[in-house]
């Protein structure tokens, strides 16, 4: 495994649409391994392949409940709303208030090529939406309601 360099806004690669993975090659497995290591080292909760300059639909997430690897993820349903602070390893020294669905259901392939359904609520739902947006060239700053101070606390009032 190796650490990859995380690219940052305004690098134009962050604004591209990533291509689906057609075949899970050793190259994709190495990418998944490297992304997990890079995310951990950067103390992030999620990382999408375009953030390491690879325009493929690959995401890793760990919100403290174990590593989730997603290949070609798609949101197939969503419900509720939540509003809360969001930041991104590719958007340095900024933070914003973003509204997201409170629950999402995501369909994706795992590294063996098996289809998986992931149900996410709260932080995991937020993270799934944020990372899948990266695959379409969308950053949270495009959707934020307002910029937040880096040390600003936000008390979430969830509407289920
Ligand atoms: Zn991000």
Query: How far is the first residue's CA from the last residue's CA?
Result: 40 Å
- Total count of helical runs of at least 4 residues: 2
DSSP, total strands: 8
**Structure ligands:** zinc ion
Shape: globular
**The CATH architecture:** Alpha-Beta Complex
What is the gyration radius calculated from CA atoms?
Answer: 15 Å
Poorly predicted ranges (pLDDT <50, ≥5 residues)? none
CATH topology: Peptide Deformylase
CATH superfamily: Peptide deformylase
Summarize the structure.
This protein is of the alpha+beta class.
Strand and helix layout:
Blueprint: H1 26-41, E1 46-48, E2 58-61, E3 68-79, E4 82-88, E5 91-100, E6 103-109, E7 115-121, H2 123-135, E8 146-147
Antiparallel strand pairs: 1-2, 2-3, 3-6, 4-5, 5-8, 6-7
The protein binds zinc ion.
Question: What distinguishing features does this structure have?
Answer:
single chain, about 160 residues, alpha+beta, Peptide Deformylase, five-stranded antiparallel beta sheet, three-stranded antiparallel beta sheet, 8 strands, binds zinc ion
Describe the structure.
The protein has 160 residues and is of the alpha+beta class. It has a single domain, classed as Alpha-Beta Complex (Peptide Deformylase), CATH 3.90.45.10. Helix content is 18%, strand content 32%. The chain contains 2 helices and 8 strands; from the N terminus they run αβββββββαβ. It has helices at residues 26-41, 123-135; strands at residues 46-48, 58-61, 68-79, 82-88, 91-100, 103-109, 115-121, 146-147. The chain is globular, with a radius of gyration of 15 Å. It starts with 25 loop residues before the first helix and ends in a 13-residue tail after the last strand. Residues 88-90, 130, 134 line the site of zinc ion.
């Amino acid at each position: 495994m190796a650490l990859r360099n995380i690219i940052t806004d305004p690098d134009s690669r962050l604004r591209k649409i990533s291509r689906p993975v057609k075949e899970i090659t050793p190259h994709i497995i190495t990418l998944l391994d490297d992304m997990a290591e890079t995310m951990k080292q950067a103390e992030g909760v999620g990382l999408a392949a375009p953030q390491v300059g690879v325009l493929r639909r690959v995401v890793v997430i760990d919100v403290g409940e174990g590593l989730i690897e997603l290949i070609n993820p798609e949101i197939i349903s969503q419900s509720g709303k939540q509003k809360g602070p969001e930041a991104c390893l590719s958007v340095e020294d900024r933070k914003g208030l973003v509204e997201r669905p409170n629950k999402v259901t995501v369909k994706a392939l795992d590294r063996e090529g098996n289809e998986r359904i992931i149900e996410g609520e709260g932080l995991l739902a937020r993270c799934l939406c944020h990372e899948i947006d990266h695959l379409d060239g969308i950053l949270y700053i495009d959707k934020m309601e307002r910029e937040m101070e880096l040390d600003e606390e936000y008390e979430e009032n969830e509407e289920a």
